[in-house]
Amino acid sequence: MLVAGVDVGNSTTEIAFARLDPGAEPEWLLVLRRPTSGPKGSVACAAGVGDLLARAERRLGVRPHLLLLAELHPVETGLVELGRLEEIDLARTAIARPASATPSGEGVAVGILRRLAELAAEPTAQQVVAVVLDEDFERAAALLRDARERGWAVAAVLVDRDDAVLIGNRFDRSIPIVDEVRDAGSLPFGALAAVEVAPPGGEVVELADPLRVATLLGLGPDEARAARRAARAVAGHRAAVVVRVDRAAEAASASEGAPIRLLDAAGQELPFDERAAPPPPGVVRAIRGAAGDSDRLLDLCWCALPASPDDPGFSRRLAARRAVAVALLSEADASGLAEALARECDGGVEVVGRESEAAVLGASTTPGAGRTPFVLDLGGGTVDLHLERGGDERVVVTAGAGDLVTRICAGLLACDPALAERAKRLRSAWVETPFTLHHEDGSRSFLGQPAPPQAIARLCAVDGRELLPLPALLAPEVWRSLRRAAKRDVIGRNVRRALEAAGGVPRGELVTLVGGSACDPEVVDAVAVELADLDVAVGRGDVLARHGPRAAVAVGLVLAYAKRGGR
Amino acid sequence: MVALLAGGADERELAAGFEEEGVPLRVGRAPGGRRLGLAREAAQRSPLGIGVGGDGGGFVLVLSAASAYPYLEARPEAARAFGHAAARVAARRPLSVESHRETSRACG
Lengths: 567, 108
Known about the structure:
- The complex is a heterodimer of chains A (567) and B (108).
- Chain A is built from 14 helices and 28 strands.
- Chain A is α+β, with helices and mostly antiparallel strands.
- In chain A, the strands form six sheets. In chain A, strands 6-12-11-7-8-9-10 form a seven-stranded mixed beta sheet, covered by helices on one side. Chain A has a five-stranded mixed beta sheet with strand order 3-2-1-4-18, with helices on both faces.
- The longest helix of chain A has 27 residues, at 476-502.
- The radius of gyration of chain A is 29 Å and the shape is elongated.
- Chain B is α/β, with parallel strands linked by helices and 108 residues long.
- Chain B is built from four helices and six strands; from the N terminus they run E-H-E-H-E-E-E-H-H-E.
- In chain B, helix 1 packs parallel to helix 3.
- The longest helix of chain B has 13 residues, at 79-91.
- The two termini of chain B are 23 Å apart.
- The A-B interface holds A 101-102, 137, 162-166, 169, 432-435, 449-450, 452-454, 456-458, 469, 473 and B 16, 19-22, 63, 65-66, 71-72, 84-85, 88-89, 92-95, 100, 103, 105.
């Protein structure tokens, strides 16, 4: 009889096809995989399974009689930016952080925001920050020169177009001129603003200092918090604008409350500190707030974006976002999926049991491993520790694995998850010239064909001959250390959490790594480092001596069924 | 950087893009030329090995080390964006996302 062991993971669905005859070893025919086609455990996953079954039918000429499933643990991951939430609450100060790479001038200046057109009128005594909107640069410079000659004190200029240097060269090279200010038209004209431009390669100094911001804008002590948030928001940038917005009678805003609230089994609130380690699995049962509302949680894990000591500007800009990657593991009801799949094959679906047993059985087919009583399944959504001790099986499931690493990489690189998924697995290089690469290990290489223009002077993921430009402008060595930190912080930490929740691993024991994330040598390193103090042997599974760490659960489901005397 | 422009090419906007990026540009006029050929000649004359050619149909940037095809090109109305992009290639700065839309690389 042809059977199929179906492992529906959070990111990947794998199916192992085997012929089972009574009394004989399974005859392994094929293993197929594809991305999971919906949230794990949902009916939408059936489409992906159906696709793999159709592919197998084309290759084998026959459809399996029976589908074997395990119990399912769906995991949701997300990235919450607590800093962005604070910005909305800035209230008393508005900030603009122009993306300009080419501001003009240097230093800090304070003035009242005025449209360029307003400067045609009689000058006032106060210093102004002129705002140029939708104006040709020659004409804008001429109007500014004229305004100054008539007595206006123009201390700084904001420009909506990329014209700062052009205007500065024709008006005044010394004052700060900031361009590419996208929302310049909706700035509060008449309000007091501080503008700063740092020298090339530098970052704003005055506006990154909350005491200086308060002094420059005349903020009172009750507005110090607003000054702190503004300073944090602009730190690490070369040019910045901070505007003082006066509002009547500030009421304590509702969002002063915690953006994320955690509840334990008794409904008591637990403290959430994105810099602290998440509690052991099972402690947090519900979550409310910026990461969404969920009950029936089995585990919650969070991880702040790693910082790099080698690029403090980048780290400060990142710190302003206070981005936290969150993974939630909840109890699932996958009966809908089982019902949808029952229609696919004559013999229907059988839920064979726990993933634990399947993972241990599948990993045990690794040559030389013998019995593998400790199996770490490093998947997309969870890190699962399967233990077998004297016939007693346990599993500890922790939320957060490959997908959480992808989220963090997407946050660091400021790119979409699909690109992050590729970048996290690839080495990187900086394209120094159209023909030369500076690799993350410090080596240089020469390109036979010029790099595409979009890759020039960018960090790129290197996929064979293909260069994938990444949005973040990081030195490749810095990116490498951040990428490895993300893998340590998520997978390394969850391995530790799982082992501690399971009561540890005896010394000298073998820990076998399986799962998609175990295909990544940097992840294997991170786990080995995490387990270094435990004096255990860490090895990668090689399922059926040909699939490497993959397909352990899918193969194990078939073995579990066969063990039960399945026909 | 050297640019050779035939009639119809918008010198002012091209030069503005270069000036904003802080990259010096020498413009020469070549009334009867076609932009790809002009760009190749400009690349030969330029110490950086990068040259710009322009005519009524648009602009082209060529690398002398790979002069068989345009490295960047743009329509005439995108002269300013092209100026920025060309200057950035010379200055080893990354192109902006907007310039990916305005300019393009010929297949090669």
